[in-house]
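Can anyone check this?
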Amino acid sequence: MASLVFRLATLAQLAYWALLFRKLAFYRQVKPPVEEKKEAQPPVSVVICAKNEEANIQQYLSHFLNQKYRSFEVVVVNDGSTDNTWSRLLEFQKKYSNLVPVNVPFATPPGKKTALSLGIAHAAHDLLLLSDADCRPSSPFWIEKMQQSLPEEKQIALGFSPYEKEQGFLNLFIRFEAVYTAVQYVSFALAGFPYMGVGRNLMYRKSVFTANNGFSGHHHLASGDDDLFVNAVACKDNTAAVLEPDTFVYTKPKRTWSGYYYQKTRHFSTGAHYQRLHKLLLGGLALSHFVHYLALGLLLCAPWERQNAFIWFMARMLVVAGLYFKILKRLKHQDLWPWIPLLDALIPIYYLIFAPNIFFGKNRTWKQ
């Protein structure tokens, strides 16, 4: 029985990787002609929410304000900060005319949806490009490349937001988990099933936000300003994925396991509100991954099953490692590749720890 379950789980895993995730590994993004690049630069509003981000504003805001783009503004919402975030924004405004600071001096409901909605309301342009105060674009061409990926027939562009590289195994796992998340949401989008985006690097049209009543469908939840909004409005025809290195937006990683745990419980708590099809596909992926390793452990304890179990395990690992080689090269994370066997085996434990939050997670605030 364990042998049959192991083979079925392994086949399901191979189907996800060979049919879905290979789309990211072999994706070729179409670049617009040079003449279109010069002429088609509609104005863009970058929207950032900041809550007690004085140090990050000082360190990162200039990366947004100094973008090489014809016409753009950076709307920064000070979401009831108790430090000197607002003073820092006013100092930057003296130097940068394209900075639009918005002050929210009162306490807002848990999460950043209220602040983000106010920022979008103050945005002067239809094209919105979202990020966070603790992030930095990888190049001064971030706005340009993101805008180019959103032709008139598209409404949403999903970008990649990796974590800064630091020392230690926690950082290694955090960066891998961000890549694995991107493997899922980008591949699903390329297959015609977009289900989420990352608010640190997400573009959509203000008209789409307004037409769908913003975050009203899930405003009672602290999280979901990025993934639940995309889950509700994205479809095969209106969504694009952006994978050029110039569009990556790097962010600060957590430096303690407890901080990472609280961050991920907040993220996982939104999964229960995804569309049913998305929950089935993601649940099947997680379950087959978990069962693959659980059954493998059981079969390795039975001498007569070890050889066949090892062959099936290696067949899957060769496919996974081969596709990861191309994916990590595309996402500029080649240093993770030697660790793939270990990191892939840790994902079921990751699911075991965080999956209960899908059903029982608390409505945490966005700064936890």
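Reply from J.R.: I decoded it. The chain has 14 helices and nine strands.
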